[in-house]
Write a structure and sequence with these properties.
With 367 residues, the chain is mainly α. The protein is built from 16 helices and no strands. It has helices at residues 24-32, 37-63, 71-76, 83-86, 89-94, 103-118, 127-145, 161-187, 192-206, 210-220, 233-258, 262-270, 275-290, 292-305, 317-325, 334-363. Helix 15 (317-325) packs antiparallel against helix 16. The mean pLDDT is 87.
Amino acid sequence: MKAPTNISEPTPEKDIKPPVIEVGVIGWMRKNLFNGWFNSVLTLLTLLLLWKSVPPFIQWAFLESSWFAGSEACRESSGACWSVVTSNIRFITFGFFPHEQQWRPLAAMILLVCLLFYSQDRTRWNRYLAWAWLIGLFIMGLLMKGGLFGIESVESSQWGGLPLTLLLSVFGLTAAYPLGVVLALGRQSKMPVVKTLCVIYIEMIRGVPLISLLFMSSVVFPLFLPEGMTVDKILRAQVAIILFTAAYVAEVVRGGLQGMNKGQYEAAESLGLNYYQTMRLVILPQALKIVIPPTVSVLISAFKDTSLVVIIALYDILKTTQSVLSDPKWMGYSAESYIFLAIVYFVCCFFMSNYSRRLERELDRSL
């Protein structure tokens, strides 16, 4: 008896393709944007909001904007007036630094950025890099201050703009981090005097806003100095920022120290390591790795808080921008100016955040 010929052979599973609505762009949208009535409504509302806001913003910021026109031409235009930034970029960036000498702070900023980018790679962390930073700091200080090798001296009262912001933030955060680690170790100390002093310092500093410390450094501190003795206003603000940030870093590091297993201390003790070796080789490397995210959050907040120095008449990049807006020619263009400032702060904060994520991945031993 002959077998029926109209029966098709089964198709191999590897030849069966998934439905179109389950893969590709459509599948991703169905899974992430329209996987329920609530998410679908949120997606549609978000698209409506973007449709109502993004095209008008693009038209205002780019299509009808003025980039290099004068203030009179800007007032005749309905778009953004980016000329408030481009026409005053030198004053916004360098403040009252002498016009013919502004190449010096520019060179100092370029050198600082180059050192920061070169130092990103942990394989380059050696004594040569430390010497490079020391030499670089000396060159940056020489470029800003002058007075040696025939370079004209410029008083610190004329410093301002972006170089002053970078000076307060980079050096403030660099000095605050090790001080915070020392304070955290002191708060964990078994010596009552050391522990009490660290607790008093940390709680007292964290109990007051940064503005009060800046006012004390600018107004109250000079009252305690001997007659005729003065301390540079930038240095006083720098110390206030360091002391304030260090207290917050100390609490973050203390959390990492408390999260360490007791067995780590016992293992170090069994190897015959003293307290200094235990902390340097065993405890701190692990504790500091654990608290990278909250530490970076504190440092980013401290970087943004440097803008508060405007209240003590320091012309950082925020103050120079506000000074431009006080000019009758450029009044009414604060939106463009503050958008420019937001971009500057965002780029700096994003660099710090991105580097912290990369450092976490490099130090992760679970992969």
